[in-house]
């Protein structure tokens, strides 16, 4: 059950009103983090599934990622954000849902970049779980 708690830096200061921004989505296996910046990289708003009230395994769900994106985007849209460039990183389950949440929020997507690091047979991966 999602709690009605709003955490994270969702207060948009007066000097941080802008129309073009960058949305960074880091989707891990355990959580989804969303950060919204302007073109210079100054953070305007951020949120995560854990900051939205999800705990434990529920943080890794696509719905939690969607809620985190909505929480982070709301003050920026009120501040005049219209066009965003999206940078997606990580193999988590909230990647596509986070992109859909940005699209349905009424913000125009200009570029979608995937910067997930892919090893060229580097470190040995962790062992598979035996349950």
UniProtKB/TrEMBL annotation:
GO terms for cellular component: chloroplast; ribonucleoprotein complex; ribosome. It is found in: Plastid, Chloroplast. It holds the Pfam family Ribosomal_S11. One of its GO terms (molecular function) is structural constituent of ribosome. The keyword RNA-binding applies. SUPFAM superfamilies: Translational machinery components. Its main location: plastid. Signal peptide: none annotated. This is Small ribosomal subunit protein uS11c. The lineage of its organism: Eukaryota, Viridiplantae, Chlorophyta.
